[in-house]
Design goal:
The complex is a heterodimer of chains A (about 100) and B (about 210). Chain A has about 100 residues and is an alpha+beta fold. Chain A has helices spanning about 15, 20-30, 35-40, 45-60, 80-100, and strands at about 30-35, 60-70, 70-80. The longest helix of chain A is centred in the last third of the chain and has 19 residues, at about 80-100. The two termini of chain A are about 15 Å apart. Helices cover about 75% and strands about 0% of the residues of chain B. Chain B has one domain. The chains are: A alpha+beta (about 100), B mainly alpha (about 210).
Chain lengths: ~100, ~210
């Protein structure tokens, strides 16, 4: 298990958390999405989603923008370039980690 | 929470969900129904009135029904390109329609060869081929499999119209349009039951 000494297996803990992994995976395959979309597709509650998105925003992985749709404020979420790069790196790291495991 | 996490599957699932609400089917169905009715009542402007008045209303209503239930999503470049190709197909269909019209006009004016006379006699089959083909190609381009069925239904229906004497093109289009419209309404009812409206979700908690 990585302990920080082996840089090859350093897992991004921001993305690694299951709920945030689901959020980033869904944002990775689209251009941008709103809160309702993310709630429906990840199964997270409003509060949970909001809290995880704040963490991803603090890490610079997502960008949250507010726009008006039918005169109502509408919040869209988009994976930033940094977030996309981090998700790609996470995928590569996890793949390498499991490929290195010996056959059972 | 979802257990399977396959990126390609996620994207596909999200894309298919944009067709789950049946609003596309209602739009396509009512368009063909309007075509059929305008032929039956001999009032060509009916289709134009539908496009000008009903279509924007339908789009607005669709947005009001769909967005609060499944949210709003913008797709990546690959899907956007598919929509661009869709515009190409629609333009090509319109040009083919124009070409068919000019062809028929040419046939009626002169003394065309026998094969051209045969085409003018069975023009309904060609309309079926153009519209049915356009529906099927659109289904392939935007990855919307129901359109294959609608394309086959359209072609089959117009083929029958051509062979059954006294069976009117207007009836055929109205029946096909009505069936697509009914499918859309059924899908919409199922969609509304499956995805209840998320109250207040257009706003963040801070905005509420």
């Amino acid at each position: 298990m990585p302990d920080g000494s082996n840089q090859d297996y350093t897992i991004d803990r921001i993305i690694h958390e299951p709920a945030r992994l689901l959020i980033t995976a869904h944002l990775y395959v689209v251009e941008s999405a709103d809160y309702v979309f993310l709630m429906q597709n990840t199964g997270l509650t409003w509060g949970n989603l909001s809290s995880h998105l704040s963490k991803l925003e603090d890490a610079g992985y997502v960008e949250i923008t507010k726009e008006f749709v039918q005169k109502k404020p509408h919040t869209m979420v988009q994976l930033t370039g940094e977030g996309r790069t981090a998700f790609d790196a996470y995928r590569r790291q996890m793949k390498a980690l499991f490929e290195d495991l010996p056959e059972a | 929470m979802t257990n399977r996490l396959v990126l390609r599957e996620i994207e596909k699932k999200v894309w298919f969900r944009t067709f789950e609400h049946g609003m596309w089917d209602i739009g396509i169905g009512s368009l063909f129904l309007a075509f059929g009715l305008s032929i039956l009542v001999d009032f060509a402007a009916l289709s134009a009135i539908w496009v000008a008045a009903l279509l924007p209303g339908l789009l607005g209503a669709g947005r009001k029904i769909v967005v609060p239930r499944i949210g709003h999503v913008q797709f990546r470049a690959q899907r956007k390109r598919a929509k661009g190709r869709l515009t190409g197909v629609l333009t090509a269909t319109a040009l083919m329609g124009l070409a068919a019209f000019m062809f028929i006009t040419w046939i009626l004016k002169g003394t065309p060869p026998s094969w051209a006379q045969w085409i003018s006699k069975h023009f309904v089959i060609f309309i079926g081929l153009i519209w049915g083909g356009a529906l099927a190609v659109t289904g392939w381009l935007v990855n919307f499999p129901r359109l294959y069925g609608y394309g086959a239904l359209m072609f089959g229906s117009l083929l029958i119209t051509d062979f059954v004497k006294g069976y009117h093109l207007g009836f055929s289009l109205a029946i096909v349009g009505g069936l697509i419209l009914l499918t859309g309404i059924t899908l919409l009812i199922r969609f509304i039951r499956r995805y209840p409206k998320q109250e207040g979700t257009l706003m963040e908690p801070d905005d509420a």
